[in-house]
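Researcher: Go.
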Amino acid sequence: QVQLVESGGGLVQPGGSLRLSCAASGVTFITTIMKWYRQAPGKERELVAAISTFNGNTNYADSVKGRFTISRDNAKKTVYLQMNGLQPEDTAVYYCNAPGAGLGYWGKGTLVTVSS
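Model: Structure:
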């Protein structure tokens, strides 16, 4: 049974940083694509970043390039999202995603609020 558990969200001032974590279980972690999505109030869920757990290749949404960094620890089966230079428009619930049937597997999300 696949389980994804996000953590690390919270309230941060503009320009601040947060590091999100996603602990995965039940996933063949060494050869998969792990993704971070976010959903802001009243908006559709959007892809933020993706990483190949095999070779570490990454992709980012244009809106976060240069500010966010996705990484993984295969031994811990954990994916991270380091978020720097946070802005109010980054406020959203952040979700971890692993491949699976349909839209794949999702965690419950962690809320990131950027506000002064």
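Model: The first strand starts at residue 3 and ends at 7.
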